[in-house]
Design goal:
By secondary structure, the protein is an alpha/beta fold. Strand 12, helix 13 and strand 13 form a beta-alpha-beta unit. The protein has three domains: about 200 residues, 3-Layer(aba) Sandwich (Rossmann fold), CATH 3.40.50; about 140 residues, Rossmann fold; about 35 residues, no CATH class.
C-alpha cells in the first residue's frame, strides 16, 4: 500500500462547546415558544418577521423571479425523484394475516407518519435540490402534513426564491422562514403558532445536527449527518479527469468535506492528484475546495482490488463511486455506503440533483447501519396478531411458563386466565 496523499487533519473536528449552546437554545424555545423563536431568528438571521409561515403571495412572487428554464429543470428533477420514490414504495407492502401455526395469525401494516418536517439548509448558495429530496418522498409515502423550512436569504425576510419554488413544486403543505437550532426545537416541541411534527429529516450544519441529536426520542429523525464525503475505487482503466472532478465536487461543499481515492494503479493516483491541482487553478469555489482537499483529501494505492474494497467498507462513505474494469463483479462485495455510483458515467453529481436517487445520505460511517432518506423513512411497519381458541391452547402454556421464569406474574396471569375462560 502506498499513500500518495494523506489528510492534513485527522482529529475529531466537532466543537464540544456546541452541545451546550444547542441545549440552551432548545430549552429556551421549549419554555418560551414564539418569543424565543423570534429572538433567535433576529439574532442569527436578522429576520424580524412576525409570522414565519410563507404566504401564497410570496410563493407566487418567487415563481415570477425564477426563470422558466430553472423551473423546468426543477420539475424535471422532481419527476425523477418522485418516480423512483413511487417504485420504492411498491416494495413496501402490508403483510396480510397468515396462520403461522394452527390458530395463530400474524401480519403487519405499513403506516406513514402523520407529520414531518423537512429541513432545507441555507448557506452561501440556495439548495433547492435538498427540498425536492426530502419533501417528495414524504408526500409519496402518504404523510398527511409535510412542512419545511429554510433560513431567510441574506438581507431579506424570506427564503431564497429558487428554494421556495422547489418547496412548492415538491408539494410542501407549510413553509416556514426559519432555520438553525430554533427551527428544530420549534418543530419538536411546538409553539403557539407552530404545531409539532412526528419526524424531522434533512441535512444541516453542525448546530442543526447536534440539535437533531438532542431532540431524538422526543421526535423521530433520519440520522445525524456530518461533512459530505466521497470514496472512489479505481483501477488502471479509470479516467483521472473524471475522478478529479468528482473529488472536487465533494470538496467544494465544506472545508471539512472529504474526497478519497482508493486505487490499484500508482500512475492513476498521481494523475488524479495533478488533475485536481489543475482544476483548482481556475475553479470558482477553489477557496473551499482547496482547503478541504489539503486538510482531508486522500489518495492510497493498494496492491489488490480486494484491499481497496475492504477499506471502502471500513470507511462506509456517503457516496461510493466504482470506476473499475468489471464493476458488476465488485458490487456484491460492497456493503457499507449511502449511495453507489457504478461506472465512470455514473457521476455522483447526477445523484445529487436529477437522476432520482436521494442525496440525503448517511455520513460519518453511519452507512454501516443505515441507508439514506427514502420513501420508507416516513413509513412505519406495525405488526398485528389474532388468535383462535386453538391458538390460545397451543401457546398460552408456553407463555405462562416463560413469564414465571422471568418473575412477571401478571404476565403469567394474563396467559392463564385465557386458558381458564375458554
Amino acid at each position: 500500500m502506498i499513500k500518495l496523499k494523506e489528510p492534513a487533519i485527522t482529529k475529531d473536528q466537532r466543537d464540544k462547546s456546541i452541545q451546550q449552546k444547542v441545549a440552551e437554545i432548545i430549552d429556551k424555545v421549549k419554555r418560551e415558544g414564539d418569543k424565543a423563536l423570534r429572538e433567535y431568528n433576529i439574532l442569527f438571521d436578522g429576520c424580524d418577521r412576525e409570522n414565519y409561515i410563507v404566504t401564497k403571495e410570496e410563493i407566487d412572487k418567487a415563481f415570477q423571479e425564477v426563470s422558466s428554464d430553472i423551473i423546468n429543470d426543477l420539475r424535471f428533477a422532481a419527476h425523477n425523484i418522485e418516480e423512483f420514490a413511487r417504485r420504492q414504495k411498491e416494495t413496501i407492502k402490508s403483510l396480510e394475516e397468515k396462520e403461522i401455526m394452527p390458530g395463530v395469525f400474524l401480519g403487519h401494516r405499513t403506516i406513514p407518519v402523520r407529520s414531518c418536517a423537512c429541513y432545507v439548509p441555507g448557506g452561501r448558495y440556495p439548495l433547492p435540490s435538498s427540498a425536492l429530496m426530502s419533501i417528495i418522498p414524504a408526500k409519496v409515502a402518504g404523510v398527511k402534513r409535510v412542512i419545511t423550512c429554510s433560513p431567510p436569504a441574506k438581507d431579506t425576510k424570506t427564503i431564497n426564491p429558487f428554494t421556495l419554488v422547489a418547496m412548492s413544486i415538491a408539494g410542501a403543505d407549510e413553509i416556514y422562514v426559519m432555520g438553525g437550532v430554533q427551527a428544530i426545537a420549534a418543530f419538536t416541541y411546538g409553539t403557539k403558532t407552530i404545531t409539532p411534527v412526528e419526524k424531522i429529516v434533512g441535512p444541516g450544519n453542525q448546530y442543526v445536527t447536534e440539535a437533531k441529536r438532542q431532540v431524538s426520542g422526543e421526535v423521530g429523525i433520519d440520522f445525524l449527518a456530518g461533512p459530505s464525503e466521497v470514496v472512489v475505487i479505481a483501477d488502471k482503466t479509470a479516467n483521472p479527469v473524471n475522478i478529479a472532478a468528482d473529488l472536487l465536487a465533494q470538496s467544494e461543499h465544506d472545508p471539512q468535506a472529504r474526497g478519497i481515492l482508493l486505487c490499484t494503479d500508482e500512475a492513476i493516483g498521481k494523475a488524479v492528484i495533478k488533475q485536481v491541482e489543475d482544476f483548482l487553478f481556475d475553479l470558482s469555489t477553489a477557496d473551499i475546495a482547496r482547503q478541504a482537499w489539503i486538510n482531508n483529501g486522500q489518495v492510497t494505492v493498494f496492491d489488490t482490488l480486494e484491499e481497496a474494497i475492504d477499506t471502502a467498507n471500513e470507511i462506509a462513505p456517503e457516496h461510493l463511486e466504482l470506476q473499475v474494469q468489471s464493476p458488476d463483479e465488485v458490487v456484491p462485495k460492497l456493503t457499507n455506503y449511502g449511495s453507489l455510483f457504478i461506472g465512470e458515467k455514473a457521476a455522483e453529481v447526477f445523484g445529487d440533483y436529477v437522476s432520482g436517487t436521494n442525496h440525503i445520505l448517511p455520513t460519518m460511517r453511519a452507512a454501516r447501519y443505515t441507508g439514506g432518506v427514502w420513501v420508507g423513512t416516513f413509513i412505519k411497519i406495525a405488526t398485528n396478531q389474532r388468535l383462535t381458541d386453538e391458538g390460545v391452547k397451543a401457546i398460552a402454556p408456553v407463555a405462562s411458563r416463560l413469564a414465571h421464569l422471568e418473575g412477571l406474574y401478571a404476565h403469567k396471569l394474563a396467559a392463564d386466565v385465557r386458558l381458564k375462560n375458554m
